[in-house]
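Dear colleague,

Following up on Tuesday's group meeting, I ran the structure prediction for the two-component complex that the binding team flagged. I've pasted the input sequences exactly as they went in, so you can double-check that nothing got truncated or mislabelled along the way. The structure tokens for the whole assembly follow below. Feel free to forward this to whoever is handling the docking comparison.

Inputs:
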Amino acid sequence: MQAEIRTLVDISDSDAARTGRADMMLDRARWAASIFERYDRETTMAIVDAVASCAHDHSARFAEAVVAESGFGVAAHKKIKNQLTARPLVDFYRDQDFVNARVDEPRKIVELPRPAGVIFALTPSTNPIATLHFKILMALMTRNAIVISPHPAVRESSVAAANALCAAAEDAGAPKAIIQILEEPTIPMVEAFMQSPKTNVILATGGTPMVRAAYSSSNPAIGVGPGNAPVYVDATADIAKAAQRIVASKSFDNSVLCTNESVLITTPDVESQLNIALKSANAHICNDDDTMRLRRFLFHPRGFNVEAIGRDATWIAQECGIRVSSNTKILVAPIARIGIEESLSREKLCPVLALHVAPTRAAAMAQARAVLRLTGAGHSAAVHARDEAVIMQYAGLVEAYRVVVNAPCSQGAAGFATNLAPTFTIGTGFFGRSSIGENVGPQHLVHWTRIAYNSDKDEPFGNYHGLGRQFRGPLATAPADGVPGTGAPRPVMAPQTSAIDGATKDELRRLIAEELRDLLRK
Amino acid sequence: MSQAKQEFLARSKEFWNPGKTQDWIDMGVDLVIDRREGYYLFDMDGRRLIDLHLNGGTYNLGHRNPELVEVLKAGTARFDMGNHHFPALARTALAEALQRCAPGPDFKYTAYGSGGGEAIDIALKTARHATQRRKIVSIHKAYHGHTGLAVKAGDHRFSGLFLSEDTNDEFSHVTFNDLTAMEDALRGRDVACVIMETIPATYGFPMPDEGYLPAVKALCEKYGALYIADEVQTGLMRTGEMWACTRYGVEPDIMVTGKGISGGMYPIACVLMTEACGGWLKEDGFGHMSTMGGAELGCIVAMKTLEIVQRPEARTMVGFISDYLRAGLDDIRAGFPDFFTGIRQHGLIMGLMFNDPQGAKPVMKRLYENGVWAIFSTLDPSVLQFKPGLLLNQGDAEEVLRRVAIAIEQARGDVMGNRKRMV
């Protein structure tokens, strides 16, 4: 029977209520994590694969659901992102072992993985399901429990997705509630989770205030910053391909990936050819009047117009009163300046690309650096060129930790069109005041206990081969005396790697007891 | 022992209960609880104890649970105990909430007391009125509280002392798990009700045999008696289900809940009954009254308690805690099977059995010295009641096992002489 209790005294808006609820979820996560860390690699990967399959199977359904719920994005592209963050993500990390000990003979060191425990993860409205898939699979690969805080704009879809994946995990043998999700993600509630000492690490994706809150929470946090990627098209580039890739990147899910290109920079010798190529790729090059309308529509005194996030270029054009052809995929807005005075040189999570023509290659590079100095530090940058020296110089100048070459930046920086680690959590490092400067992956959710022997060569190292920590696996279900069918504990043992398992210990005890009795009798 | 505590204990003997105060000191548990929070108790001299007694489940959600403290405080801004004569906002709301989670679809009314004994008396009177019979059948070594009728239904230990045992042949006691004795007691068709703790607590949690409780219910139906489930210790999710009788497949006619439903913050106990049993509520609604029973502040706290225990997190926690502690206790027992002879368990309700008729007392004492508070079963002191709370976290559970291992080894030495361990 459903519990529905008429509330005469409503304490839901109190710290006690929030902490009470948060504590219950976090304590439950800690229980689940404490059992999950006893699992061996085989069982762990079976769970990961089962969840990835479930995620894959639901990719289309949840892509449509979030577009319907949020009102923006491109379902077909979201489906691709959802699929990419399921099986391909797991395959990328499949050969990395986060479960078994690592033996380093020459240094006489053995490393044992220790999962973080309870991960509190925020998921955004822009890439809700892909980020959810990503964070859940990272957590499961490393035998952590995860509690997700969904963005309110896509709450229902996110909750449905998390519940489906948790069911798949449990069916494959994961501890119960290894994945949990906040059904009512209010700001005070999220803060309660972030500040709780029961949270082991926060994976913060989202707006800067949320990320800053995570870092000030006194818990370890892995935060990301906003992007604002400059893309420099050099004279040595294949201009036609560059244009196609840039348009493909900006129109992919209508630029909601934070890795999307924000400002296109080139030189006069490239400009007209680039414009032609962009038009061929279905970009609309704005005139001054169009650009003014765009600027006014997209940027309010308080910041970016959130109504425009993830919207089609044709919709934005219509809202601005700009006439474009119906097959227009992106709008290109020429800007004369880059910096604080030009709002279009800021991040635009929509298919609008600013275009700046700098007089020389050196000037172009300086402008590219300026884009990231304005906002988006540590995030992404892109370059189209076939001159290594140019690329090196560019990469050393821009304050970004990933520079995508000759590829769409949206996908490339996130590891889906380059060989960077696939991720939906882009570490913006020191430039961006984040603790991690690379694409976040499972390795960030595990720390290692290092067993270090005396380095003196007279002290021999031990023989650790084949000796794993004993993986006790899931807990046996306790009996419920008197309830038919719930008799003595029936252990569900994972394959033992240790020489002496529980059954053998019992036998040893029995033998010892017998011996003692014999001795006493004599 | 500090000077302050010695003086305090002297005053307790002077003004409160000299016998009990001294008995505790003799048993090596000189506990005077001062601060308390979560599952921690702090003796006035500073010792910290992890509470595995919970006052029989009263502290299921811990001591001074912040949500319950908050709701009580907020409640006082609007309510007091209320006027017990009138329909009251909080009393009816709680009755609705209880009906929704009752152990059967036929439950309807809730009557209120301020404590378990009082609620048991209400239940027994209800059964007598509904059946127009006087006889009451209960279990040997049962415990239902200390009020007038309840104390007669319980073990003689608590009634004889006060010349308050049954002298009218109205209360008969049969052995737990003995269906023949039960049927014999019911055969005369003059029994109003069988009252049964789903798992007798003060007797050390002997567990019902498979099928025993449903068979008792069937016998009740056959002979026209009502089945009263005393869920005071076994209710509120402690078995992984709201009420333990549900786990055993029994839909009682009347059910009593107390202790835990108060949240440990405000005294309240409840009697749930089917429409068929609640005749007196229609015929003569003024027939039973209780100034303190169902106090509105208590109802407010009780509703919050019901809400918390029915959260999905609670149910999963019961599973984790039960499984983990059982595994740990099995490991400990494997080290001393000659002393620690068995474990009774249903969810968070556990009895640890020791190889000595008074064996649980030294265990209790050693646990106390090692920072764990658990109590021996009064009516079978070879069994220690082991009752983790619903919200016990993994860190504290691990602490408990570590300390229990130490304490049991020490107690074994006390009881069996300091023999070497077998393994």
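Residues 15-36 of chain A form the longest helix (22 residues).

Cheers,
M.
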